[in-house]
Amino acid sequence: MSHALITGGSLGLGRALAFELAHRGWTLTIDARHEEPLARTAQGLSELTAVHAVAGDIADAAHREQLVAVAAAAGRLSLVINNASDLGGSPLPRLRELQAAAYEQVLRTNVVAPQQLIRALLPYLEPQAMIINVSSDAGVDHYESWGGYGSSKAALDHQTVTWAVEEPDFIWYSFDPGDMRTAMHQAAYPGEDISDRAEPETVAPIVVALISSGLPSGRYSAAEVAASLAETARSE
User: Fold this and answer.
1) What's the pTM value of the predicted model, to 2 decimals?
2) In sequence order, which residues have a C-beta less than 8 Å from that of residue 155 and are 6 or more positions away?
3) For the chain, which terminus, N or C, has the lower number of CB atoms within 10 Å?
4) 149 is catalytic
5) Looking at residue 187, what is its pLDDT?
6) Is the pLDDT of residue 60 over 90?
7) How many CA atoms lie within 13 A of 86 on its CB side?
8) Please, are residues 151 and 143 in contact by the beta-carbon 8 Å criterion?
9) Quick one: pLDDT at residue 58?
């Protein structure tokens, strides 16, 4: 049975991915900052598959050490999804207003934590294991007040493709899911109606399709993956 580790697995895309994989029989290790929603998610998942849940902040080295130990005890990993992210404040601050402590926290969570987690997990990855780092269009395009978060995702994109060069025995994807109807996206736009954004449950199947797509390591958006799969289907 395949085993996946998903960070930020209690809400939003992380939760949707956990359930998508659970329905396919994957064993799961998940984490999240807040214990109560993580426990609720783990309870639901446990009705479908074996799940191991570890509460804590992925930016904290001690939590990462615990998470790696729990994952290693559950078996070698076929998939790691670095989904946990820090937005950098709500409402999002312009760069001139972004304080050092807040920016450092964003970088620790969105850039340093994925790199350090992967580094620690390398001995426990199966051959041809896949690592998916969840990115954002803000890492490529430039939006007012998104400079802190966007620059962290740009760094994560760069990190991902560098991993691919340095560790070619694994598959490395940086994945941009697009705007979604999540608590984090709502925090970016406090008081605004974001009901036109995609539900995470509609994006999760695209990630699952990416996992089995055979696409080479690189950066992909949800729209690109969907288009690539549609083109493959037409040519068959």
Assistant:
1) 0.95
2) 107, 110, 111, 139
3) C
4) yes
5) 72
6) yes
7) 24
8) no
9) 98
The catalytic position among 103, 149, 173, 220 is 149
Which tokens belong to 4?
Answer: 């996946």
User: What are the backbone dihedrals phi and psi of residue 61, each rounded to the nearest 5 degrees, phi first?
Assistant: -60, -40
The 10s digit of each residue's pLDDT in 161-216 is: 999 999 999 999 999 998 878 777 777 778 888 788 889 999 999 999 999 999 99
- Residue among 3, 15, 70, 67 at smallest CA distance from 44: 15
Mean model confidence pLDDT for the chain = 94
Under a CB-based contact definition with an 8 Å cutoff, are residues 136 and 182 in contact? no
Nearest to residue 219, comparing CAs of 146, 137, 152? 137
141: exposed, middle or buried (Cβ count in 10 Å: 0-12, 13-18, 19+): exposed
